Amino acid sequence: MFVVTGGAGFIGSNLIAALNATGGTEVILVDDLSDTAKIANINDLRIADFFDKDDFCEELRRSGLPSGVTAVFHQGACSDTMVSDGRYLMNVNYEYSKTVLKACSASGIPLIYASSASVYGSDGPFVESAENEHPLNAYAFSKTLFDRYAFQNHSDTSTQLVGLRYFNVYGPREAHKGRMASVAWHLTHQYFETGSVRLFEGSDGYGPGEQRRDFIHVDDAVRANLFFLRNSGLSGIFNVGTGKARSFNDVALAVINACRHVDGESAITLDQAQRDKRLNYFAMPEALQGKYQSFTEASIDKLLAAGCSGPWTDVDEGVGRYAAHLYTALRAT
Question: Catalytic site residues?
């Protein structure tokens, strides 16, 4: 039996769907469903039981993990990088994670948990090493702190402990995230509403829309989780990205052309999109200035050396397929 915390969230619900696809239905889903929008992520999933997050934490402190659990995927977190309530953020991302870790350690149960590429800050290098950790905001600090705590206190090396530093994940089951949904999700909705999309103007030496991130499809992030489930002798912190940065302009053009294809129109170039005002730019909000990663690119050497290899979904294919699906659904409403 598996526990998936954050199981009604973006990566968690996709992970349960993947487990279901291979016959895995003995899953305990843990989440806070105060936001009922997340129900749409889980109404097609098969699970054995559900725990509210707070009740689950209390159960862990009182009596440990439920009997029969063989692995825990800890995906539950506050992923809003703009949250200003530091106490709330540290409680959800740090204290909650410590509680899960202690329960797993006490029972000798493998723990695979969600970390974040945000720990590296704005400059990199994006390599899994403490000297490269330069968190820019409270969210990134909470993730950095737990990474350090987890491995400083990982005394039982026979029990698997894996932290996965996700880069920019996009894909199905993210609508509930609102402003923290992927740029692909937001741009598709913009195109549906206005026939055009908007990106930030230039920053940190990059031209308009030329800021670059390592965009990874959620299916690939899930695949990494399942790889470590199958390879319980592996522990450590691993980047989960494609190893190839792509510009926001690339993502925007993939969205525009996917939507145009659904509309029966031919593909256009980036120059055409800019000239025809299908792609526009606006100033970065002041709240993001100095806290924004204008470039990320995962070093995946450690992941590849562990045996978790590609192929990783290319932005043109992954964003194009995802945007077409979203846009078709929006047109049907």
Answer: 139, 177
Alpha carbon 203 to its chain centroid, in Å, reads: 24
How far is the C-alpha of 105 from the C-alpha of 111, rounded, in Å?
A: 8
Cα angle at 196 between 194 and 201, to 5 degrees? 125
Tokens representing 98?
Answer: 């410590």
> What 8-state DSSP symbol labels residue 127?
S
Q: Which residues, including other chains, have CB under 8 Å from residue 159's CB and lie 6 or more apart? A: 104, 105, 108, 109, 110, 111
Listed in sequence order, the residues at least 6 apart from 33 whose beta carbon sits closer than 8 Å to its beta carbon are 8, 39, 52
For every residue of 57-98, DSSP letters joined together read HHHHHHH-SPTT--EEEE------TT---HHHHHIIIIIHHH
Q: What is the pTM of this model?
A: 0.95
- Average pLDDT score over residue span 105-116: 96
Per-residue pLDDT tens for 42-66? 999 999 999 999 999 999 999 999 9
Strands (E), the chain: 2-5, 27-31, 49-52, 71-74, 111-116, 161-166, 168-170, 197-200, 212-213, 215-217, 236-240, 246-247, 279-282
Q: What is the SS3 assignment for 330? A: helix
Domains of the chain with bracketed CATH: 2-169+217-240 (3.40.50.720), 174-213+245-331 (3.90.25.10)
Give 299-328 pLDDT, tens digit per residue: 999 999 999 998 999 999 999 999 999 999
